[in-house]
Amino acid sequence: MPAARTAPDEISAAAALSRTALGDELDALFRQRAALDGRIVARLGEAGRQEVFRDDGATSLEIWAVERFGISTATARALTRVAEKAWGVPRLVGSLCAGDVSFDKVRVVADVATPETDRALCEQARAHSVRELADIARTIAATRAPEPADRSTSLSEHDRRSVRFNDQCRTMTVQLPAESYAETKSCLEARARAIPSDGETRWDQRLCDAHTDVIRSSSGRAAGGSPYVVVVHVPLATLVDGAAEPTALAGELERDGLIDTETVQRVACDATIAVAVDDDVGHTMYEGRARREPTQAQRREVMRRDRQCRFPGCTHVTFADIHHVVPWKPGGRTDLENLALLCRHHHHLVHSTGWTLSGNANHALQIVSPAGRTMMSRPSPLWTRVTAGRS
Fold first, then answer.
1. C-alpha gyration radius of the chain
2. Global model pTM greater than 0.70
3. Which residue in 260, 273, 359 sits closest to 312, CA to CA?
C-alpha cells in the first residue's frame, strides 16, 4: 500500500494541474465524496436500527456520532436525519452512493421523502440545484400541513376539580378545569421533551418523569434542599460498599417493600442520609444525621466547571444532578473533585451494573461501558483556563 501523501505533497500536485485538469479532478473527487457519504449514511442507518449507540451510553445516534467520530452537532444531525430515512428511500440513497447526487441534495428533501415519492424526488435531485430542491421540499411540506383545528369553548369546571390518591396502586386521578388542564399538559410535555431519553423510554413514562421533576423543583430540591423525607432501611455495608452484590433483599423502602442494592445506592447518591443504629433483629435503636449534600457554593462551582452533563457527547444541563464519583460514606467528605454533573439518564446509567466512573472530576473522569470501551471526560476549558492561573 503506497504511503499517504502529506499536505505539502497534495498542494504541490494541485498546483501542477492545468485549469481543465483541476475541474475534471474536482468532478471526480466530489463524486467520490458523495459515494462515501452514501456509505456512511447506510451504515449509520443500520447502527441506528441496531441501537449501537447504547453500547457507549449515548442517548441517541446523533450524540453518539458527535462523540465517537469527532464531528459537529450540525453535521451529525444532518447525517442521522438522512440515515433514519435510508431504508424508506432506496433510490435517493442509491443515487448518493453512486455519486450521481450530492449529500446536500438528498438532505434537503429527506424530511419530505417517502417510499411513494422516492422515485420522483430522485429524478428531481438529479435535475435541480439544492436551492430549487429546498423550494420543492417546502411546497410538499405545505401541502401536507394539517388544517388548524376549530377552537371549542366549554363551561368552567372549577367546582369539579379534584386529585385522588390510591396508595395501594400508587396511582393518582386528576380532574382539572379546561384551562388548568391545558396549562398542566403543556408544562409536562415541554419538560418531557427536554428530559434525556435512552431511546426506549415510553412517552407516558417521560411525562411521569417530568411530573416528578416539577414536584422536586417546587419543593426546593433543585436548590439543594427538600422538606420531604423518603425513608429507606438498609444495612450500612450495602450503603458504603460499592462492590456489594445486587440483591432484592438489600433494603426496605418504608411502607413500600424490598429494594435491591442498585436502587439503594442510587437513592443514596441524591438524598439526605439518616444513619440509624439497629439491634440484632433490625429494630432501630438510634437515629442520627450526617450531611452528604454539596453546599450551595459547591453546587455553583460544579455547574461552572462542568457546564453540562459530564458524559461524553451529552449536552443536557436542565435536568441534571450532582453525582458522587466515589460513593459517599458517613463521616466522609464531599469534595469538588469527587462531584460531577450528570443528567438524569446518565446518572441512572452509572449506577447500573457494568458501568464504572472514576477519576478526579477537576481533571479527568474515566467512564468505562459494559462492553469495555473507555471514554474520557474533562472539565469545561473555560473553567480549566481560569483555575490554571491560581496554581
1. 27
2. no
3. 359
pLDDT in tens, 95-147: 999 999 999 999 999 999 999 999 999 999 999 999 999 999 999 988 875 55
Residues 347, 269 contacting (CB under 8 angstroms):
yes
Residue 380, classed as helix, strand or coil, is coil
Alpha helices in the chain (DSSP H): 7-15, 19-49, 61-69, 73-85, 90-97, 103-110, 118-127, 130-144, 178-194, 203-219, 236-240, 261-269, 296-306, 344-350, 381-388
By three-state DSSP, how is residue 172 classified?
Answer: strand
Give the residue carrying C-alpha cell 386529585: 163
Q: Which parts of the chain have pLDDT scores under 70?
A: 1-7, 145-157, 198, 219-259, 261-292, 328-333, 353, 386-391
How far is 269 from 136, CA to CA, in rounded Å?
53
pLDDT tens per residue across span 40-99:
999 999 999 999 998 888 888 999 999 999 999 899 999 999 999 999 999 999 999 999
Provide the sign of the torsion angle of the four alpha carbons 97, 102, 108, 113, taken in this order. negative
Q: Residue 4: count other Cβ atoms within 10 Å of its Cβ.
A: 7
CB atoms within 10 A of CB 175: 12
The alpha carbon torsion through 317, 322, 327, 328 (nearest 10 deg) reads: 180
Amino acid at 314: C
pLDDT of residue 210: 87
List of residues 6+ apart from 246 with CB closer than 8 A: 260, 261, 262, 353
DSSP structure class, residue 85: H
Using the structure block, give the residue that is written with the C-alpha cell 500500500.
1
For cell 450551595, the residue is 296
